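User: My collaborator and I are trying to settle a disagreement about how two of our proteins should look. Neither of us wants to argue from intuition anymore, so we agreed to look at predicted structures for both before our next call. Could you fold the first one, then the second, and keep them clearly separated?

Assistant: That sounds like a sensible way to settle it. I'll keep them separate. The first protein:
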Amino acid sequence: MQAARPSLPPLNALRAFEAAARLGSFKDAARELAVTHGAISRHVRLLEDWLGPPALFRRLNRRVVLTPTGAALLAETGPALDRLAAAAARHRAGGGRPPPAVLRVNALATFSLRWLLPRLGQFRDRHPEIEVRLSTSNEPVDAVTEPCDVIIRGGPDTFYGFTCHPFLTEWRLPVCSPALPERVPLRDVADLRFHTLIHASTLPRVWPDWLAAAGVPELAPAASLTLDHFYLTLQAALDGLGVAMGPTALVAEDLAAGRLVAPFPDVTIPTRGYHAYLPEARAGDLAAMSFCRWLEETGRMDGTKAPGGGVSAEK
């Protein structure tokens, strides 16, 4: 059983006192609150009677001055009325709806930029009661120090204290600007020897694995361009600097829009899928579970079959 709330002074009297104390005048307080001078005087007297001595004001001819007791009461009353006003304003602005639940998501930067952000509006439309706060990093799940409700990484991996939810499978294949093969043809895999291959320093095995799957493990390109971030390799491909290895999930929209082309769609290599890792303490959280279900549904809609249905190399 909850304890009874301590008795409160008359709220209208508190409001009249705060206005008079802040403005230094019963007359000005009456004007602000749209009541008579006499009403303010009666409310202040009622409050003083309720509180007991000493008095809250010293009454002078044309103004009132707070006593030390009145100043101490004003220091508490003003902020309390401000909080009440702010709470009422939030209630009116939100139509009485509760504030949104905050969901803290940490994801890989390239994945966030190229897959999650373009689709996040769909989740917000479905769940306006959930506010997603997205941060990006590449640390392993168990090395993330900031508080998170959902962490998106490759997998599957096992981390103590986390549950794992797979939602998106992808493959890798070469992609480039459509202007590139117009300048230098890419009719078959051997034509890559006339092109620049774009590498990510964090993924040194991607091109060798794909060339092996394509049957040309010894192919030597005309040039190589190595960049330190994976998303830079995709931007370099979009800019026509060479041919990059594109994960199907992250380049699907560029391929559909014609910003990129896949000259050899029948030769792909698998890569680690994307997984949502939830701290076990958040496993029953409605916002986190709603987000995971949305990830799984959206991942299924994007498809899980390698494009072209051709050669696939396990690694």
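The second protein, kept apart from the first:
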Amino acid sequence: MVGAWLMLVVLTGGIGSGKSTVSRYFEELGVPVIDTDLIAREQVAPGMPALQEIINQFGKQVLDADGRLNRARLRRIVFDAQEKRHQLEQILHPRIRAEVARRLQRLDTPYAVVVVPLLLESGHNYSADRILVVDLPEALQIKRIRQRDALSEIQIRQILAAQTDRASRRAIADDLIENSGDLAALKAATEQLHEKYLRLSAR
């Protein structure tokens, strides 16, 4: 519990699971949504201290021609190197957590949603009252990622292998959205959870 007046729901799921769509549905219902991926992007914008630390740690090779962070290049550097990934996390994670806490303190709502794609990998659950996992079968997950990102199946499987396995994500869920259907079903599932969270936060 972030405060006596705010219940915190942490939303997570694997790549291509539908997290962004679910978070958008929550926003349409008037629920404050804080996306840690968006905060991470803000932290590495030109002129931000985190970007300078990343340059100091990994070199100017991580920048593009305009002096902005080349996220794809940085991802390749840290993807298969646990030590380098840990160095990047030490730069970004404390800043992200501090910004999440700052935004939560400003809220006066029954509950809020914090989107944390790599929840288990980060080892920090933001003191969640509820953990919501969006999930779907791997075959469907791969199909949707290919349609969205134009990646090969080999590339997608490499990304999936680097993330926490599906069973582990499902095991930590207080609430689970099975995203195997269409958008109407996904929206209905989100609306049902919204009503549930309003009831829980009122207790």
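Some points you might bring to the call about the second protein. Residues 83 and 89 are 10 Å apart (CA to CA). Residues 39-106 form one domain.
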